[in-house]
Every structure is written in structure tokens, then in C-alpha cells.
Amino acid sequence: MAVPKRFLLLAAAAWTWFSQRYAPAVAVSQGYIKNTIALFAIAVFIQLAWSIVIHPLFLSPLRHLPSPPDGHFLLGHFRRIYKDPTGEPQRDWIDNVPNDGVLYYRWLFNEPRILVTNPKAIGEVLVTRSYEFVKPGRLRKGLGRLLGVGILLAEGDEHKRQRKALMPAFNFRHVKDLYPIFWSKSQEFTDKLAETIKSSPDGSSVVEIGHWASRATLDIIGVAGMGKDFDAISNPSNELNETYRKIFAGARGAQLIQVLLNLLPHWVAVNLPLARNDIIGNAVDTIKKVARDLIHDKREKLQSGEAKGMDILSVAMESGGFSDEDLVNQLMTFLAAGHETTASAMSWAVYLLCQNPDVQTRLRQEIRTELPEALQPGGQISSTEIDRLPYLNAVLQETTRIYPPVPLTLRETAHDTTIQSHPVPAGTTVVICPWAINTSTHLWGPDARSFNPDRWMQPGTANTGGAESNYAITTFLHGPRSCIGMQFAKAEFACLVAGLVGRFEMGFEVEGHVAGIQGGITARPKGGLRVRLRDVGEEMEKA
């Protein structure tokens, strides 16, 4: 464990005083201040040499674990991690480096990382001993600034308390009652797309689907989660929508700056005069103001008896377990995580359907055959009608398997522990990489990286895709820290994809387009996803 710098400085000052007074011959420099600075610099250098080179390379108990090749003596495996999309190196290592469930690799300056690779190891970290593996402090501070310190970042008993208080808003029966809201917004989404295409000055039918998906999912979390329609579908210049677009606009330069900022104390990093800090600071102020206004309006409605609801905000307020500041944090969490992840999934679903027009045609046929009335203007839908579409379920499951919206997440050992009987020291970062696990050939076979919805269509495979272990899919994680909004997200995703595919035939703006992955809080198609839409709803009705 690193010795605090202030302790090193005090030790240097104390030794300087002693040497100057009793042993001037051992002083390294003349003068009290110069000698103290010199000793402090020597101590810091020794500490850095120990923590960056000596301990990780020669003494760490982790060094005997299976490890990827080509690690640099100083930078570890960071060069590849930074160069490749988030999760891509881990996806390679999980299949090609022999291991028994645990891999050891080194991040920048040889900071240790443990990658869990098989169901037993995943089960230990996420389920059987989940509260021994906490969110890293740097991650909590960094994400907490954007997402609030809500249920996503709470730990231990506080997390258990928050989850229990919020669960009524996410139980299975309640989510089923939200399908009409999801479907109504899906129809508004497709109607606005059709209107935009028709009114395009240059007659273009090309749209950037990611921005549209974000607007739709922001509206859904607003109505179904807070009882407030943000109207982002109709009004893209909506303040909240614009704010989130600025936050999630990832760029390579910004990622490098973030890496460098992570090396500094949090309070220093957030106060540096950087444009990104100003953007985030202003965005956070806007989001908090929106959250406080929502809480104020909801409290007035609850007191007047107008709003007895099961939305997230109503449930949280009626539980009595959250202060107003706690409620702001929860709303920040659900507003951001609750819309950006599903928007990412939507982008990848459209990408895969454009890549596989035969799948798109087959899915459209199922949707239009089974939901003819729902697809009509003003049509309604129930959970039963959507849930009985097996090919839709298969396409959605396969999309989130291949492109999980959050490709990698981190934990940290709260104390000395073991994983798969391997000793892991306290403070070690543990990596769970859904993108690597979901596409591992060891868990899914030789076609693990291929888009194949039919793997979910065989007898008994509708929920497993044919994988032998439940832990072969980690898109929503598992155990006490699994995504509380999983059923909510799956339901809105199903309604949005059904509405979009039922209404439009989709193809890439540039035929044969291959999307890169843009890292960030979520993984999205790099540079956006521009697709050409053809409204087939009217054509099919006439036919």
C-alpha cells in the first residue's frame, strides 16, 4: 500500500531536523528546506519504483497467474487497452490465454487488474460474495459527479436499503403495466421519423438513428419513471436532451484527458481549468435543477392526492427512505443510465438488422402478422402481445449478447480475498467484461461472435441461447448488484424495435458500412449510425 505523500514529507522534514542537529555529515543538501525537498523527492522516487516496477513485476502474488503476452515493463498492457475499443483486448485474452477463470493483466504503470473469465469466477464476484467486491473509489467519484450517488454506486447495507425501497417500481407486474406507455412512445417515435423524412428539404430519407433513439428513451424514462414527458422526440433542442448529448459525446482526446485526470486526486481533477470540466459542471447543474423541479412537482401532486403512482419517483418518495438530496441522486442515476443504455442497444439492433436484411425481413413479417392492429395509428398493445413474439425476443437477446451497452465494469476487493482459490490482495481492481464473456467461444462455441438469432429459437433455448451456464450472459450482470431496471429496459427495447421494424425498412446510408465502437460510459457506433429509411407501413396496408 502506498505511503501518503504528507507522511513522506513529514518524515523528510523530521530526518532533516535530526541530521542538521546531530549528524550534519549525512545531510544530502545544505539548508533545511533544500534537504527536506531532496529527501522527499528521493522517498517519492523509491515509492514509485516500488509500486510501479519492483512489486508488480517481482513480488506481487498475482504475477504467477495466467497473463496476456506483450506487457510493457512500465506501461503494462495499457497501450493495447487504450488503442482498442473498450473490452476488445479482454475479448481476445478470454479466448486465447489459457486460464482457470482468472487472468492477470497490468494497466497503466502496472496497476494490477484481475479479469474473471468463467461462470464459477463470475458467480463468486457477482453473487456469492458480491459485497466483498465494491465499486472502485475513483470510479464512484467520477461517475457520481454525472450519475449522482444513487443505487448504482451505493455499497453494502446502504445499497440493500435503497434496492429494497425502489424494487416496487421495477417488479415484474408493474413493468407489464407500462407496455402501453412504451408502445405509445414507440408510435410517436416512428410517426416523427416518417414526418421528418417527408418534410426533408432535400428529399433525404437518411437519419442518425442514435440521436433519435436517445430522444425516445429519454421520453420513456421521463413518463414511465418520473411521470413527466420531456417531449424530446418532438423537440430535439429540449434542454435536457441537449445536456445529455454533450455529456455522452465521447472523443479520443477526451478519453486520454480522462485517463490523465484519473491519476490526480479527484478534487484536483474536477477543479482544473479545462473545457470538459466546464461542460460537465454546467450539465450537472442543469440535470440537478430538472431533478429538483420534478421532486417539487411530484410532492405537490402527492399531497393533493393527484399522483398515486408506481413510477420510480413516486415509489422513492412514498418509501420515506430518501432525503430530497438522495432523491436528486436517484433521479440523476435513472435519467442517465435509464435512457442511454437502451439507446445504445437500439443503435446496435438497427446496425445488425441493416447488416442482415434477411433477419430484418423475417422480423418484420412476424411483427406485422402478429400485431396488425397495434401498428395502426393510435393502436394499443399489451405485454402479452409483445412477449409472445419469439423471433423478436431472439433478435433482442442476440443484439444485447453481441453488443452489451456497458461492455466492461469494474469492482475492487474490499479486503484480502480469493477468486477461484487464487489469493487477491485488498484494493485490487477486478474486471467483469460482458462483451468478452457474452462472445467467448468457450461459452458459446465457434460462432460466438456471429449474429445468429436462431440460437434463441431452439427448444428450451429462449432464455439461454443454448449456453450451458446462466453466467454466459452478463449484459445485466447477476446477483444483488444486477441491473434493477432489467425488465423495464427489456420491455421498452422490445416495443421500440417492434415499432421501428414494423414501420420502416432500414439500410445503411453507405452500403457495406462497418461500424467501429466508440467508448465511453456506454458503447455506441463510432461516429453515429446513419441509416436510410423507407416507410413500408403504408405500402403494406395498401397491399
Folded structure, characterized:
The chain is an alpha+beta fold. It folds into three domains: 1-59, no CATH class; 73-138 and 406-474, 2-Layer Sandwich (Uridine Diphospho-n-acetylenolpyruvylglucosamine Reductase, domain 2); 148-405 and 475-542, Orthogonal Bundle (Cytochrome p450). It has 23 helices and twelve strands. It has helices at residues 5-22, 32-59, 78-83, 88-96, 119-128, 137-147, 156-166, 172-177, 179-198, 209-226, 239-247, 252-262, 266-269, 275-304, 312-319, 324-355, 357-370, 383-387, 390-402, 434-438, 441-444, 486-503, 537-542; strands at residues 102-106, 112-116, 133-134, 206-208, 409-413, 417-419, 422-424, 429-432, 504-508, 517-518, 524-525, 530-535. The strands form four sheets. Strands 1-2-8-5-3 form a five-stranded mixed beta sheet. It has a three-stranded antiparallel beta sheet with strand order 4-12-9. The chain has a two-stranded antiparallel sheet with strand order 6-7. A hairpin with a 5-residue loop joins strand 10 (517-518) and strand 11 (524-525). Helix 9 (179-198) packs antiparallel against helix 10, helix 11 packs across helix 14 and helix 16 (324-355) crosses helix 19.
